[in-house]
Amino acid sequence: MSLKIGIAIILLINIGVNAYAQDKERFQKIFEKETSGEFENQRRFKNVTCLSYYPDTLPRWFFNPLQNGTGYYAIGVSDPDMILGEAKEQAILRAKSLALLNEECKIQYFKDIYTDAKEVQRYTNLNERFDIYFKLIAKRKVANAMFAVLDTHVTRYNEYVVLVRYNPQQVNASDTLYPLMTNASVFFVSASYNGAEDNQAEYEMKNYLLAPDQKVVGAEFLFREKENKFLSKSNFNGEPLEYSAFPYSYTSPDATSRSQVLVTYNGLWSILSRQMLFTLMLNTQPYSVKLKNLDQQYSRGVTRLAREIASFSSTLEINGIKFVNDTLKFDLNLKGQTNSMW
Fold first, then answer.
1. Helix count (H) and strand count (E) of the chain?
2. pTM of the model
3. Which of 54, 111, 139, 202 has the greatest count of CB atoms below 10 A from its CB?
4. Is the pLDDT of residue 315 over 60?
5. Cα distances (Å, whole numbers) of residue 72 to 122, 148, 150, 163, 207
6. How high is the pLDDT of residue 150?
7. Please, are residues 249 and 313 in contact by the beta-carbon 8 Å criterion?
């Protein structure tokens, strides 16, 4: 083994949480300098034998899941480094669960806003904080005949990616119905103290189905972040799944620049689910209903609490996905919302 290859492997083994904050271009230059083509994976992955520093090219349908025809379309992605048979099952469950959101989903939103104004000599120091709790639920009785896997893709990191069509009208009287559920939530906190900002969030998604043979199939995923630090936890059918923090990189077939390459250290599903929930949370705000506004006078200033809530039924339409500046952007709509008090 050459000295350069040995240095590259040492760099990979030592990549951890701090790698999340590294500059992508600087990191890629190190790879291009210290490696040639592909390098052998050294006990970082269980089921991936060889990795390439080149991004994985995702299929066109990943970026535009909408197709002509009846029904609803959704994408599901497994965790990295899984046995492909199990990865396929996890990806299909996630895709089926997201497809339910396209037909109808229940959205709940709760936001508290705190403002603390303190008089300091001739100036006023303004500190603010807001806490958001966002929840998204869909549950239906479905049959296998309602779903069709239209296309699949396996990434360099043993992630199974599927495109699923869901047609609730595609069912016969003899088909066995079973419950399918998706439950997703976001807890987001943003604070500004004396000009310094601090953000932290927790994103969670749970998908379950009770198969006709009474077997429960379930996938749970949790992602926590605070500034540049993050933690992810995943389990499938009650078993925890572990995979390495690694610079997983992806691009589209039409990418023409580095700005269209996505790098994430927790795999594709982590950023896909996180960005979808974050975008939905932001899109929910215009429909919020102000519930309470309370001013409390203290000797050092005024603390104001404004509380907003919203609850409505909607349908989720994902028009497209794109990679821009090392992040994932959703073009989506919430349709048919009818506001009501929580």
1. 5, 18
2. 0.80
3. 111
4. yes
5. 59, 11, 12, 11, 18
6. 96
7. no
Confidence tier at 222 by pLDDT (50, 70, 90): very high
Q: Encode 221-247: b = buried (16+ Cβ within 10 Å), e = exposed.
A: bbbebeeeebebebebeeeebebbbbb
Residue 105 φ/ψ, nearest 5 degrees: -145, 155
| Residue 328 banded pLDDT, cuts 50, 70, 90 | very high
Specify the 3-state DSSP secondary structure of 140.
strand
Which 8-state DSSP code applies to residue 176? P
Q: Alpha carbon of 282 to those of 121, 278, 287: distances in Å?
A: 37, 6, 10
Contact call for residues 274 and 203 (beta carbons, < 8 A): yes
Residue 327, pLDDT > 70, answer yes
Task: Supply the pLDDT for residue 52.
Answer: 75
Residue 309 has a CB neighbour count (10 Å cut-off) of 18
